[in-house]
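Example (one chain per record):
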Amino acid sequence: MRSDANIAGPMTDPVPGPRTESPGEDVSRETPPPMDDTPIGRAAQLAVEALGRAGEGLPRPEQTRVMVVANQKGGVGKTTTTVNLAASLALHGGRVLVIDLDPQGNASTALGIDHHAEVPSIYDVLVDSKPLSDVVQPVPDVEGLFCAPATIDLAGAEIELVSLVARESRLERAIEAYEQPLDYILIDCPPSLGLLTVNALVAGAEVLIPIQCEYYALEGLGQLLRNVDLVRGHLNPKLHVSTILLTMYDGRTRLASQVADEVRSHFGGEVLRTSIPRSVRISEAPSYGQTVLTYDPGSSGALSYLEAAREIALRGVGVHYEAQHAHALPELSQHDQHSSMQEGIQ
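Predicted structure:
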């Protein structure tokens, strides 16, 4: 019986000897394929790295940290910051409760929590003295994350609270009566300085202020700080501004750097070294009922919120923070600028 190799002439096998594969076998398995350097491959690798870092865990506070996310200016990223920081802290191993005090209920939407009119909500806690444990729901996508939702009924709570006894401290009493162990409570405030925000300021010990890197960022901030001083002087002596987070930072513009420099010159150590970039992924995530951490964990927005949460957690226990993936201010690296630009045009 003749072999094709015997008549192939110049095409004969230059390496004689036994083969490990059959003639028709694909030899690609001998040499592993090169690392995927496509955009999808890089995004997947970033996502794996991000979730891996989140799983490392962070030191837990000795007692529950109640943080009020407030700024009466709308559109600065209060709700976005609340839900994404909460998800980041939970992914780092903490037990976190988000209290949605905004009648629009956007934080509830972003966490995938149903909040139609018939759902027990934070309104029932404030007005009808319902226990907080009766309205808290677990967030489906993130273990250790819980939410007290807001419904449209909360829009009338400002008026209804006026005639109630101890109207400024009703949320504080509800939190004190909540028996489940928690590491963090983040309260998402409405864009106003009414009774709902005052209830949050009385209930919390720390104020977290998101500041948009735009021209109008500092307008109205003085009034918020005066209200914090008033509440501290008359209702809550432990209240203080612990954290300021720069949001919607665009490294392509000089304005963002100027605003960042001005904020840092005014507030110094309260400003986180991590900033949150403008990101399409952050904006898209709530439409899917998710945080950016579960929607696209490898995006620049997700990585930045993970770093911000890490910085907040380490500050809380007095550990020095070393930035790993923070967006440096006032300048971004060329790679970060390119990533920001690519996300901006998607």
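Caption: The beta strands are 65-69, 96-100, 137-138, 145-148, 184-188, 206-212, 240-247.
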